[in-house]
UniProtKB/TrEMBL annotation:
It comes from the Bacteria. It comes from Duganella vulcania. CDD domains: PBP2_GcdR_TrpI_HvrB_AmpR_like. Residues 8-65 form the HTH lysR-type domain. The gene is gcvA. It holds the Pfam family HTH_1. Transmembrane segments: none annotated. PANTHER family: HTH-TYPE TRANSCRIPTIONAL REGULATOR (PTHR30537), TRANSCRIPTIONAL REGULATOR-RELATED (PTHR30537:SF79). Belongs to the LysR transcriptional regulatory family. This is Transcriptional regulator GcvA. The keyword Zinc does not apply.
Amino acid sequence: MSASRRLPNFSALRAFEAAARHENFSRAAEELHLTHGAISHQVRALEEELGRPLFVRHGRQVKITSDALKFAQFLGKSFADIAAAADAMRASAVNQRLTISSIPSFAARWLAPRLGRFIDLYPDIEVVLQSSGQLQDLARDGIDVGIRFGRGNYPGLVVQRLMGDVYYPVVSPHYRGGQLPAAPQELSRHTLLRSVEPWSPWLRAAGVDMAEPSGGLMFEDLSMLIRSAADGNGVALVRHVVAMQEIASGQLRRLFDTATPCPDEYFFVSPPGAAGRPQVQAFRDWLLEEIAAFQRQQA
């Protein structure tokens, strides 16, 4: 269409189409949240612009002319096409969004530092990263991907194992003025920080005959546990994946060679309705490549 072709006022076209469909200015006003007078004004302005009457008026009663009825039907179809195109644009925008829910420790310490690489590869995908330790209803909450740490039993979801993890003790190099435990058997004389993950499996693996620590503060958030250890408050039993940043930076030092496998593992889960979406498949493939590269670095 030529850019110079002058179109009638869009508001006037909407007012006329609604009035024609209802054959009543008051009902058209209700539909468009306007006054009766505003609808009448818009219709008269359109009549003046087109140079012909669109309604025959008998007091407050109006009857559309035959030519105007054809015009209104054409407008109705055009407005429906515009609405459909707008819906498609909205759906396209939603389809390019990827909502990820991850356990907080993995989200903050492993995933978030790497996520920029995925965004660089797929700049058209809007990534929303949520941190949650709860087992959400992913489909109900509009979440495309969940990263979970557990045994892999997630009914109703598409599940793929990502990787396992191991536990070992860490401590600040400044703990007790640098007088760190030299052997696992010395841990009984030191402050063992507690979390939801028990010490007993690691103590047994290290050959230490010692009861599970009790009393004092228990950390449910592994990030807070790591922060407390880095502050020199005691020895912490941590997962490698979530503590490696502080170890690499020197804020924490790993103690001893013994590591015990975690009974839980990391899993990629997705509602069946989301699992086939291109952005979910792209993220899964990218994540598996990142994990493979990470594991090669650790080997």
